[in-house]
Amino acid sequence: MKIAGVDVGERPLILAPMEDVTNPPFRKFCKRYGADWLYSEFVSADALVRSVNKSLKKLTIDETERPVTIQIYGRFIDSMVEASKIVEEAQPDFIDINFGCPVKRVAQKGAGAGMLKDVPLMVEMTRQIVNAVKIPVTAKTRLGWDCENIIIEDIAERLQDVGIQALAIHGRTRSQMYTGEADWEPIARVKNNPRIKIPILGNGDITSPQKAKEAFDKYGVDGVMIGRATIGKPWIFRQIKHYFETGELLPDLSVAEQIDIIKEQIQLSVEWIDEIRGLLHMRRHMASMFKGLPHFRDLRIRMLQAPDLRTLWQVFDEIREKYGESTIED
Ligand SMILES: Cc1cc2nc3c(=O)[nH]c(=O)nc-3n(C[C@H](O)[C@H](O)[C@H](O)COP(=O)(O)O)c2cc1C
């Protein structure tokens, strides 16, 4: 499938944007294991306009990761337009506008999912960004503010009309945050609306190859975006691809194989940030690994509390010795 001339693959599997997760080192692994299209973590438009170093660093992209999207958020049209131009200079394949972030510090201020309460502003902001840059603009949002206000069908048409090239929809409302189950029916209604011509990317609770297949087959989306299930398991993309190609489920990686991968990830993270913060950053990934290993509690605690690489490597050696060839059934 091509979007504005950019090839994003057939039935693309997309790494969802995740703050503090989808930085360049992590994206590298998702790409290696088969992600077709990568999103950066969201970047504050205001911080970009003020040239905050930490935010400028988030614009780093590598040629090998294309197609890649940089996502921005903010509540003021002026700074969002300005930030889009700054992002454009970094030459991502797409700029995405975040209209879905539910966390208080973003949404209560009117940015992210806060825009679901002011659709005219959302549409006007999008229109001005589309007009300000040459690269394609996409958006990511939720079903609506709450279950009494499921407005995604209307939003999709209006954002399409002002020129977005694809829309990613997380099948939850802002009020749901991350609770309950994602509802894919409204996503399918958007997709089946004959007025909608742009690709619709479905998102929410894709945790297995079967669920990814259902997203395409039952709900008809053009792409599937995966977030939390990639944390500690970037090879989920390969498992899904294999299932699509053969109808068979790949056995999960052995503990020893998983250790090799996480060590490499940690090393890259440390190079990207520094030893202490690079290690802290990876704890979220480690925390979601090795679930279901018998009698693992003490080793898990030591793994998650290791203060430096040397200690952590020793813990990994112990895990390898005790469980190396085991595989963990999900
Ligand atoms: C830790 C974390 C950070 C996130 N950060 C962002 C973000 O920066 N931008 C965004 O659009 N969505 C963000 N999300 C939402 C995800 O992109 C995705 O919509 C959501 O997790 C649902 O998909 P999933 O069930 O596959 O995880 C974040 C989610 C998580 C768990």
Overall description:
- The chain has 330 residues and is α/β, with parallel strands linked by helices.
- The protein has two domains: 2-246, Aldolase class I (TIM Barrel, Alpha-Beta Barrel), CATH 3.20.20; 255-323.
- Helix content is 43%, strand content 14%.
- The chain is built from 14 helices and ten strands.
- The protein has helices at residues 24-32, 45-49, 53-57, 77-89, 104-107, 119-132, 152-161, 185-192, 209-217, 236-246, 255-272, 275-287, 297-305, 309-323, and strands at residues 2-3, 6-7, 13-15, 37-44, 68-73, 94-99, 137-142, 167-170, 200-203, 223-226.
- The strands form two sheets. An eight-stranded parallel beta barrel has the order 3-4-5-6-7-8-9-10, surrounded by six helices.
- Strand 9, helix 9 (209-217) and strand 10 form a beta-alpha-beta unit.
- Helix 9 packs across helix 10 and helix 13 (297-305) runs antiparallel to helix 14 (309-323).
- The longest helix has 18 residues, at 255-272.
Structural class: alpha/beta
Going by CATH, the homologous superfamily of the largest domain would be Aldolase class I
Q: Encode the helix/strand succession as letters.
A: EEEHEHHEHEHHEHEHEHEHHHHH
Radius of gyration from the alpha-carbon trace, in angstroms? 20 Å
Number of helices: 14
What bound compounds does this protein have? flavin mononucleotide
- Percent of residues in helices: 40-55%
CA(first)-CA(last) distance: 32 Å
Q: On the 0-100 scale, what is the average pLDDT?
A: 97
Query: So what's the CATH class of the largest domain?
Result: Alpha Beta
The main pleated sheet reads as:
8 strands, parallel, barrel
Q: In CATH terms, what is the architecture of the largest domain?
A: Alpha-Beta Barrel
Give the overall silhouette. globular
Total domain count: 2
Number of strands: 10
